[in-house]
Amino acid sequence: MGKSKVLVVGGTGYVGRRIVKASLAQGHPTYVLQRPEIGLDVDKLEMLLGFKKQGAHLVEGSFSDFQSLVDAVKLVDVVICPMSGAHNRSHNILMQLKLVQAIKEAGNIKRFLPSEFGFDPARMGHALEPGRVTFDEKMIVRKAIQDAKIPFTYVCGAAFASYFAGNLSQMGTLFPPKEKVLIYGDGNAKVTILEEDDVAAYTIKTIDDPRTLNKTLYLRPPENELSQKQLVEMWENLIGKELERISISEQDFLASMKGMDFAGQVGVGHFYHMFYEGALTNFEIGEEGEEASKLYPEVKYTRMDEYLKLYT
Questions:
Q1: pLDDT band at 85 (very low <50, low <70, confident <90, very high)
Q2: Helices 96-106 + 66-73 axis angle, to 10
Q3: Paired strand residues for 8
Q4: Among 71, 74, 210, 218, fewest CB within 10 Å belongs to which?
Q5: What is the end-to-end Cα distance of the chain in Å, rounded?
Q6: Residue in 164, 178, 151, 115 with CA at minimum distance from that of residue 271
Q7: What CA–CA distances, in Å, run from 39 to 34, 35, 36, 42, 120?
Q8: What is the pTM of this model?
Q9: At residue 177, does pLDDT exceed 80?
Q10: Do 220 and 306 touch, CB atoms closer than 8 A?
């Protein structure tokens, strides 16, 4: 059997472009949905043409043209949809319901990977408003997938390094603080942080693997399961300087939501679950899931002490 043919929907996005790169690198015939909605966004055009130069196939299709989605899906074996679920970018989770309908109509797909990649929404029924909307919508998509009897893999469990590592998990910046660092509570909750290319590499590994069929793949490589304090210490060791640490209590952190816009409130809620509850790591992986680094030890994932050197 050859490598599965892969369609990436949302291939010019933050995660999507990495999925395309990983799919090509692992030798899969790779198709990228070319949507007319990009309009005059020349950066996305250049990205699409770059994919084409690397060997990807561009397929025209639109969420406003159902048949075009069906036709695109029929070209491949696997569909991956890393569309944004972040309110500080674009939030398109429920658009995937049209894609689920198209996959059901096409009837040929052996695996669908919807937009996940962070918290496992099945474990976030207790999530705070308004941030819980992300998890509720992902569960709506999951229900549609399972009702349609579409084979799936859900990839969950990591914070992205660009958002959580280089800035030492500070809100409102992507760069490391120079003098003072805000510590959430006691700073000991464990958070899995992965470089985004590693997330993509693990994702593509799953698609021809029977061990991940109708399961959740958790991205929890042990050396990247770190507390915020450990992350700060890594940075201090690299720069040879101690930062002033300011601890913020749960109550004060949640109170900071007041007066924020919607995206800010969502962000505070998600940070709370990550750094006060440890919601990415505070459970054992059961029979419904697998852990990525155990299944795929050949993926040489980037350790965060190495990653942080980029910022020195």
A1: low
A2: 60
A3: 32, 80
A4: 210
A5: 46
A6: 164
A7: 11, 9, 6, 8, 33
A8: 0.96
A9: yes
A10: no
DSSP secondary structure, the chain, as one string: --PPPEEETTTTSTTHHHHHHHHHHTT--EEEEE-GGGTT-HHHHHHHHHHHHTTPEEEE-BTTBHHHHHHHHTT-SEEE----B-TTS-B-GGGHHHHHHHHHHH---SEEE-S--SS-GGG-TTPPTTTHHHHHHHHHHHHHHHHTT--BEEEE--EEHHHHTTTTT-TT-SS--SSEEEEETTS--EEEEE-HHHHHHHHHHHTT-GGGTTEEEE---GGGEEEHHHHHHHHHHHHT-PPEEEEE-HHHHHHTTTT--HHHHHHHHHHHHHHTS-TTTSS---TTEEEHHHH-TTS-PPPHHHHHGGG-
Catalytic residues: 138
pLDDT tens by residue, 221-255: 999 999 999 999 999 999 999 999 999 999 999 99
Place of tokens 């958790």: 218
Provide the percentage of residues in the chain whose pLDDT is more than 70.
97
C-alpha–C-alpha distance, residues 137 and 95, integer Å? 10
User: Is the pLDDT score of 88 beyond 90?
Assistant: no
pLDDT tens profile 19-49: 999 999 999 999 999 999 888 999 999 999 9
Tokens linked to 79 = 């569909």
